[in-house]
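Researcher: Structure prediction, please.
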Amino acid sequence: MTDRTVHLPVAAQPSVDTLVDLSSRAEDLGYERAWLPETWGRDAVTALTSIAHGTDEIGIGPSILNVYSRSPALMGQTAATLQEVSDGRLRLGIGPSGPAVIEGWHGVDFERPLRRTREYVDIMRKVLAGEELNYDGDIFNLAGFRLRSDPPDPAPPIDAAGMGPKAVELCGRFADGWHATVFTPDGIRERLEDLRRGAELGGRDPDDVRVTLSLTACALADGERARQLGLQHCAFYVGGMGTYYRDSLARQGHEEVANEVAAAWASGDRERANELLDEELIDDLAAVGTPEEARERLAKFESIDGVDAIAVGFPRGATVDEARETLEALAPEK
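Model: Predicted structure follows.
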């Protein structure tokens, strides 16, 4: 059975309390975990600490912390502390993010993202195990320290994000799980083959690598409003977030529309970018519409063999009330 989790809004919210309230409501509705993105708004660590203190049972986790703005040792310390304050409810999501954020916001060169992610996983596991940190990698050379506090027991799992074949293969070889986003059903099935190949190369059982698909969802009584929000969200990611999402959509058989959306967005024609995403493609990228329509489209993704959890996300333009309405409509017991 596919678990249902929630991917808290990526857009700025009125307050940290809003994120806590959404997580608490998700807990009441039976969602298994609350994932929190970290982009260029509130930092995920402070917000997740507040969520941990404001809830009792729901799992928590960042999806994702990037592997450039914090050192791998600091990220290990952070994971240990979050696991402590949440009483063992943490599952960590890390990944390279993309050059638009890493270079434009953090001012760091977006170099060797796959190797960097691999070394972060290795180093963090040593930190979380309480081992002396002696590591001789291609990027990091570390020696002489170990975590000063007691290591968490159990250590939190470390998932990695990826979109391309090699990135997903890496998740299968080394991470505890894979975080996927902006995929069509056919697209994620193709990448799942890469995940299985990576697991086999690493001598692992593919079933031991947990797959979480973050799915843009909006279920409103006003189904047309929900569809427009979903369309605008997808156009932003394909057109406005650098080349990663565009290239991923192109690999999934939609190269022409991906390039056209990116070109329209770059020229400042947001309306044209939105229009280029047709109804059929939106239904392959999101679960939006009336509650009945959104549930039907969500079920299409949950039925994919190899997907362990769906993280119900929200369009960037959705209000808090619309996020709450969607949470209610797509709750696991529904």
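Model: The radius of gyration is 19 Å.
Researcher: Thanks, that helps.
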